[in-house]
């Protein structure tokens, strides 16, 4: 078998993208997935395959971090918060245990050191997904925690605390929780059914998260993944603390248990549970690529997009074990040495990936917005690379 039945549509000239999608869709294994793209404000691809329908939604995992950054950016742009000010100026309790000088930008760039601790881990359950809705207790625990490293001296992926910290900052500043803010300020104006957290009424079309699986890899990638996952299960390492490791198990081992359970689906988790279709998510990223306005909607000023997408951190990430070029909450399209760019050819592109092959990005140079989702997650999926390369080939051929 060399391809799989693909549903949906592409614009004239983008037919090769459909062909590539039919090939990478084989990687969906027991599940399904979707891919959508906008170019210059026009939808050019809306495709799905496998155990999927036109209206199937999915959880985007850490792609959520990009749209959470957008919410922070919008408040900064309005003058309601300053990302270079200490978090404690908005959330006084956060100053405990040497955290008084940690800024919002330090969390957006994953250098704050506030990645969790045993007390935080004890509040949640990896086996049945319980506790992820204990928002007040989790916020209090994060505020009382000790940074894992001296703030600012290292960079390490804030797997879950990124969303909890920024969500609480948004609530303290704006009065609305993150999910409500995103719905009212982003999703509703853009007329998209995308949310951070999904109401129970929408769960009948939400694809279940299937266990992470490992395709065949070259030895060097296999070795990297084995080392990374071992660290994520070890509660004495930064990676293990960041992934709430306990008894030799980390959050990456329990994705179905966490995100198929009610708390992990409903509670707005700013680091992990943006939910929607690929087409609607792509529309959000397309709007982010058009700061002067997309379909009549201006999310934030062009100046704020320049600020937030400038390079603010590029040191090696001690958890991901790779140098990551980051803006304020956004990952820039500058790959580690020896690795290809996954967001097309332009280094100005920005967005975020999610565990298992989820992705979303904006390219202000080519005026592109893209999103891709699946529900049988694959470690180190190459599908985004192939799909986005094909997209830009089509753009070049039709220009």
Describe this protein's structure:
With 399 residues, the protein is of the alpha+beta class. The protein has a single domain, classed as DD-peptidase/beta-lactamase superfamily (Beta-lactamase, 3-Layer(aba) Sandwich), CATH 3.40.710.10. The protein contains 14 helices and 14 strands. The strands form four sheets. It has a seven-stranded antiparallel β-sheet with strand order 1-3-2-13-12-11-10, sandwiched between helices. Strands 4-7-5 form a three-stranded antiparallel β-sheet. Strands 6-14 form a two-stranded parallel sheet. Strand 11 and strand 12 form a beta hairpin. Helix 1 (15-24) packs antiparallel against helix 14, helix 2 (64-77) packs parallel to helix 6 and helix 5 packs across helix 6 (161-174). The longest helix has 16 residues, at 383-398. The radius of gyration is 20 Å and the shape is globular. The mean pLDDT is 96.
Keywords:
single chain; 399 residues; 7-stranded antiparallel β-sheet; 3-stranded antiparallel β-sheet; 14 strands; 15% strand; globular
């Amino acid at each position: 078998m060399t391809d799989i039945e693909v549903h949906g549509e592409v614009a004239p000239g983008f037919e090769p993208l459909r062909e590539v999608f039919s090939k990478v869709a084989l990687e969906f294994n027991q599940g399904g997935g979707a891919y959508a793209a906008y170019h210059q404000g026009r939808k050019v691809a809306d495709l799905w395959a496998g155990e999927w329908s036109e209206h199937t939604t999915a959880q985007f995992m850490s792609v959520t971090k990009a749209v959470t950054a957008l919410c922070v950016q919008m408040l900064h742009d309005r003058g309601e918060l300053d990302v270079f000010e200490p978090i404690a100026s908005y959330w006084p309790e956060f100053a405990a245990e040497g955290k008084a000088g940690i800024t919002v930008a330090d969390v957006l760039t994953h250098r704050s050191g506030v990645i969790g601790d045993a007390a935080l881990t004890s509040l949640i359950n990896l086996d049945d997904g319980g506790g992820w809705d204990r928002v007040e207790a989790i916020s209090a625990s994060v505020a009382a925690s000790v940074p894992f490293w001296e703030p600012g001296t290292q960079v390490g992926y804030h797997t879950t605390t990124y969303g909890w910290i920024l969500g609480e900052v948004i609530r303290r500043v704006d009065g609305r929780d993150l999910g409500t803010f995103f719905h009212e300020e982003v999703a509703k104006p853009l007329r998209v059914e995308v949310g951070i957290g999904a109401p129970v009424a929408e769960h009948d079309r939400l694809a279940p998260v299937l266990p992470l699986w490992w395709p065949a890899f070259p030895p060097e990638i296999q070795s990297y993944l084995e080392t990374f996952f071992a660290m994520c299960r070890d509660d004495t390492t930064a990676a293990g603390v960041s992934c709430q490791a306990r008894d030799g198990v980390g959050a990456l081992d329990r994705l179905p248990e966490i995100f198929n359970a009610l708390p992990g689906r409903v509670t707005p988790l700013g680091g992990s549970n943006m939910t929607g279709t690929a087409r609607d998510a792509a529309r959000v990223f397309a709007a982010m690529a058009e700061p002067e306005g997309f379909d009549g909607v201006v999310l934030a000023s062009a100046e704020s997009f320049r600020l937030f997408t400038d390079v603010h951190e590029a040191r090696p990430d001690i958890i991901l074990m790779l140098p990551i070029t980051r803006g304020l909450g956004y990952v820039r399209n500058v790959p580690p040495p020896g690795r290809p760019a996954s967001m097309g050819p332009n280094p100005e592109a920005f967005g975020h990936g999610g565990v298992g092959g989820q992705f979303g990005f904006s390219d202000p140079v080519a005026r592109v917005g893209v999103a891709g989702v699946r529900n049988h997650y694959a470690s180190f999926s190459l599908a985004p690379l192939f799909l986005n390369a094909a997209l830009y080939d089509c753009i070049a051929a039709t220009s």
